[in-house]
Amino acid sequence: MTLSEEQRSLIEEFGIYQENNGFQPAVARVMGLLLVSDRPELTFDEISETLSISKSATSNSLNMLLNTGHIEYTTFSGDRKRYFRIKSSNWRELFAKKMEDLSYLNSLLKRVLEVRKRENPIYDTKLNDFISFLDYMKAQMPRLIDEWEKSRA
């Protein structure tokens, strides 16, 4: 598969972004490739060869992305290969999960403030600001989603 220089650069940039969010490098690049590819689905071999990563790294990356719901695969009649693609229909689920994670983090931070015995008013103020922002975001997000959906109608 031939990629333009701009596509390759974007895969790398997306990969770095995802690495900064906890993804392994190969996983991040596989996801980037599936996003920027001109074709909606790619085979295992196309992914491995295009990214110049080992079959093991490709397999591990695809399994991780399948298990986390980021990608899916399809097959075609008469073809034994699996064709992998971004699972774009689940962005709402992923967003809801991220909001749940932030809500859990917020509850942890509130507990941190409760159990801390040391006096550090500057740190406590910054932590309270973050907690307050997370509370605000959680309260506002349903309204924002409703407004967005209404704007698309």
Automatic annotation (TrEMBL):
GO MF entries: DNA binding; DNA-binding transcription factor activity
Keyword list, A-Z: DNA-binding, Transcription, Transcription regulation
Transmembrane region(s): none
Gene3D superfamilies linked to this entry: Winged helix-like DNA-binding domain superfamily/Winged helix DNA-binding domain (1.10.10.10)
Domain of life, per lineage: Bacteria
Domain HTH marR-type: 22-81
Protein name: DNA-binding transcriptional regulator GbsR, MarR family
Organism field: Pontibacter lucknowensis
